[in-house]
Amino acid sequence: MHVLKDLEPRKVFMFFEEISQIPHGSGNTAQIADYCMNFAKQRGLKAIYDATGNVIIYAPGTAGYENSEPLIIQGHMDMVCEKNADCTQNMDTDGLTLMTDGKYVWADGTTLGGDDGIALAYIFAILDSDDIPHPPIEALITRDEETGMYGAMDFDPALISGTKILNIDSEKEGVLTVSCAGGITAHCVFELSQQYHRPAYEYEISVSGLLGGHSGADIGKGRLNAFKMLSKPLKHITDCYFGTISGGGKMNVIPQNASVIIGSDDEKLDTLQQIVKHCNDQKYGGDTDPGLLFSVKEIDTRGKVKYLKNKCYLYDMYDFLRCFPTGVQTMSDSIEDMVETSLNLGVLELKDSELHCDFLIRSNSEGGKEVVAGTVRDFTKSIGDEIDFVEMTLSSEYPAWEYRKNSPLRDRMIEVFREQYGKEPIVAGIHAGLECGIFAKKIKDADIVSIGPDIADIHTPKERLDVASAARVWEYVKEILRRSR
Length: 485
Ligand SMILES: [Zn+2]
Prior knowledge:
By secondary structure, this protein is α+β, with helices and mostly antiparallel strands.
């Protein structure tokens, strides 16, 4: 115990260590919520444990700040529990085994929960001190951010009065995050023929070796979609039957692998090998996906795969794969290098005579989702002669956190940053979801900025918190409070 006792800022690391001794994986937050409630009670602060499991602690402004506008400081109480294969720790019942070398803090064999324990440690250190000037604070500690932002989703905005929100759930010091993407899923269904044929030869053509990645955070990196790459060999294949297609599997992951099964009445392995070689020679992966590999093999599905009788289907599949929209659609004009709208075709499967596909659409502006959904709809109508579009349904919508042109909180934070660090902060948006998006939608006129100290490899047992960075961000947060009179 007290492994971190020599680290500065002492109080921050003391609370960080206390939190680490309470198991608090997503879905297992009752104990940490109790801890938050007790913390408030012991200090005579008003606190609410709301109906969904969030904790809100209210602290009045210090002398001279009694009538200042309240500041909401927000973080999430749950952490991702991951551990090494040989680690015996029971993360449901036991605390973490903290380690430090003075430069970093990590947990032995498990995730650290620096994401988002550092937010709670800062909040407690502020509320526990009597020498930090601050405006009225509404500390909003949400539950289960990591598994679906359930605490934020169900949060009742009537429980707070402030509109300025300092979210401490980013992992890069020096970056002020001011926008995040919203999303919506477009599920499209196409009808194929039910007339089948049994060819003499069967072949599987595959695409593998792509990097894939997160369909939000990595979509701007130009990574290839395995389904789209299947169109490359299909372009050259004639006189074959379409059997089935598979690959990808997760809407929020850029598909790394995909394959198509085709049939032929005569032996074609040589021809197909030449086509595959030709595709490999083209090096379509370039610098972004150098591992891209096309391959072909003869297979025997023993009648399990049904081939469509009309050979035109193979050409229509080629058309489909060549034309479906995926990847970056537009870039932001307010934030440099930020993707504004994108989509990812992550799921494509044949169920009987229906082709189902799921596009995850993201946009950092509210209107962008509709525009991209329109692009998908246009595509569905343009496809082949044989593939009949049946329907497109939109679901699982969540809001974008749009960039605010006028943001007094951001202005103040840029000013403080400049003075403390002697340089400009990076003002950025992320093309993925954050709790801030939900608060931006729920709280009228919300003015939100997200920050945090350097934490590497979050959500993995390699997660480590940079001690010096945590100390600098602590000074930064205190100065923001002092200026919030
Ligand atoms: Zn987090």
